[in-house]
Amino acid sequence: MNLLFLLRPKDETVYITSAATVRQGLEKMRAHGYTAVPVIDPEGEYVGTVSEGDFLWALCERGPVKELEKLSVREILRGKRDSAVKVGAGMDELLLLIMEQNFVPVTDDRGKFIGIVTRRDIIKYFYDKEHKETGE
Q1: Can you tell me whether residue 107 is helix, strand or coil?
Q2: Are strands 46-51 and 85-86 parallel, antiparallel or unpaired?
Q3: What is the pLDDT of residue 114?
Q4: pLDDT tens string for the chain (136 positions)?
Q5: What is the pTM of this model?
Q6: For the chain, is the Cβ count within 10 Å smaller at the N or the C terminus?
Q7: Residue 17 DSSP one-character state
Q8: Count of domains forming the chain
Q9: For position 23, which CATH number holds?
Q10: Closest C-alpha among 126, 36, 35, 31 to residue 81
Q11: Nearest residue to 74 (alpha-carbon basis) of 21, 31, 111, 37
Q12: How many Cβ atoms are within 10 Å of 15's Cβ, its own excluded?
């Protein structure tokens, strides 16, 4: 199966640009109730995932909230987590990644962010596949 059948396209996905301020990132995450979201650069390439923990560490390390308004989201990313896959990735590759991530970012062949595949959708795919094969 092609992962495009499970893809939540970019225009239906919450993401943050790397140039957004920490405050803007926090507000977006709070508004949508997510604990982590993909980060893309101005050219649309996936650069990582920012989490609540990244914001907390920035607050602890950088001090007052007013200071955080001067920081961009790119400056608080703590390593590249949540590996992305190319659009042609197989379901087994998605399954291996989703064991460690809440979602898998998907990029096209140029590295441009095109959307995500969620843990729920991957689990449902394998559940449905198993029950179809066993006839249960």
Answers
A1: strand
A2: unpaired
A3: 97
A4: 788 899 999 999 999 999 999 989 989 999 999 999 999 999 999 999 999 988 888 888 876 666 777 888 988 887 666 889 999 999 999 999 999 888 999 999 999 999 999 999 999 999 998 887 776 6
A5: 0.85
A6: C
A7: E
A8: 1
A9: 3.10.580.10
A10: 36
A11: 21
A12: 19
Name 20's Cβ contacts closer than 8 Å, sequence gap at least 6. 28, 72, 73
Torsion angle of C-alpha atoms 26, 9, 101, 85, degrees rounded to 10: -130
Q: Side chain identity at 61, as an amino acid letter?
A: E
Amino acid letter, 135:
G
Type and span of the H or E element at 22:
helix 22-32
Q: Which one-letter amino acid corresponds to residue 39?
A: V
- Range of the structural domain that residue 46 is part of: 3-134
Adjacent-strand bridge partners of 17: 40
